[in-house]
Amino acid sequence: MKRVLLLSLICLISFQLTNAKTKPTHSASTKVPQKTASLTGTYRTRWSEFKVQALGVNRIHVRFDGSYQYKVRGELTANTGTADGMVTLKDNAATFVPEGTTGCSINLKFVGNKLVVKQTGSDSDCGFGHNVTADGTYIKRSSRPPKFEER
Question: Which terminus of the chain is more solvent-facing, meaning fewer CB atoms within 10 Å of its CB: N or C?
């Protein structure tokens, strides 16, 4: 009786180990395609940054944090602007419209390890501080999934 119980236990453990090795860790519907996943990371210019997180097939979460820095009476000060949202990629490009804005769109184009950005609309149209713009070529500085803090 003990042998049968022991043999049954060994078979059960072997079966579970075999299944664990062959079972995928992510379902096919939630797995991020390699091309889109490679866009995840932090892209920066001297004063501004974009955080990008791949969400699924051609969907990304984007956050812009920008600033315009200048001196007043010898003291460094800055105007800032932020934008956050989800966009759909098509041929490594997307158009991002910050929530709650009118007349603002931010065109994103991923080229290698760079993010080329063209803003349509003024700083105020986009809800940014004076002279803050998303325009520019951003260099990828990190491939780690970014953390999106509440602001």
Answer: N
